[in-house]
Write a structure and sequence with these properties.
Blueprint (H helix, E strand, L loop, with lengths): L2 H11 L7 E6 L2 E6 L3 H13 L5 E4 L3 E3 L11 E5 L9 E3 L5 E5 L5 H14 L4 E6 L4 E10 L6 E10 L4 E3 L4 E3 L9
Parallel strand pairs: 4-6, 7-8
Antiparallel strand pairs: 1-2, 3-5, 5-7, 8-9, 9-10, 11-12
Pfam families: Uma2
Keywords: Endonuclease, Hydrolase, Nuclease
GO molecular function, one term: endonuclease activity
């Protein structure tokens, strides 16, 4: 990271965000957005409640730190194995995360499908689930590999499932029920 990245992280860590506003540091840029739609929140809640509690921690809006990135994204949901990370502090290392979930909004399409896909692969997160209430689909990205042309980590496997169909998430040993997922009005 550069001195500018360090200064931006310092500014971000001391940023006073108004209530109801979410803020993330994405590749050196502070991104602020209004609170999410109810559709968004119900999807995140449904996934969280289907995550087996005995083995996994599923946390909403947990700040991540990704090695080599001037970013502190705040995914909609992170899932990590109990005991894989300290249970205190503001930042969770991406290296401890097994699955990260983002629910797409009208203003986050590019970030969720492109930028965060690259960042989460860079962070070594084994699975990235994109839930898209605009299109009514879920996209599960898995099987990290190295892109031969760029030398960067990428997700090799991409499975798209429409809302209503189950999603097999092998890493969590769970089949997610998406029958209650709704699209935005």
């Amino acid at each position: 990271m550069t001195a500018i990245d360090d200064r931006m992280m310092g500014i971000f860590e001391n940023l006073e965000v108004p209530e109801g506003v979410k803020a993330e540091l994405i590749r050196g840029e502070i991104v602020m957005m209004a609170g999410p739609d109810m559709v968004h929140n119900l999807i995140v809640s449904a996934i969280q409640h289907q995550t087996p509690y005995a083995r996994w921690r599923a946390l909403q809006t947990q700040d991540l730190i990704i090695s080599g990135e001037a970013s502190e994204p705040q995914p909609d949901l992170v899932v990590f194995e109990r005991g894989a990370a300290p249970e205190a502090g503001r930042l969770l290392s991406a290296a401890a995360v097994t699955v990260v979930v983002e629910v797409v909004s009208k203003t986050s399409v590019h970030r969720d499908y492109r930028i965060k896909r690259e960042m989460y692969a860079q962070g070594g997160i084994p699975a990235y689930l994109i839930v898209d209430p605009l299109k009514g689909v879920c996209v599960l990205l898995t099987e990290l590999t190295t892109d031969t042309a760029s030398g960067t980590p990428v997700y090799w496997s991409e499975r798209t499932t429409k809302f209503g169909d189950p999603i097999q998430v092998d890493l969590l040993d769970v089949i997610l029920d998406t029958s209650e997922f709704q699209t935005y009005s």
